[in-house]
Amino acid sequence: MIIEGKNEADIIENVQGKILPSLRKNHGPDSIEEISTLRLLGPIRIFHNYVPLVNMSKGILRPDWTDDAIFVG
Asked: Residue 17 pLDDT more than 90?
């Protein structure tokens, strides 16, 4: 599940106030065994040129992927 928010407080509020109660209600109070999080901002900035199902083939950028679509920061 990917959860977006305008800031960390917004994400925490959505998870604690909406998502977790909904999961417990729909799937039972013991349905959640573990929660792990990963902040995607850093990895997206580093790896956003590489989208395996969109622009990659056999681990490399497809030859038909235009250089104009590659981010260089």
From this structure: yes
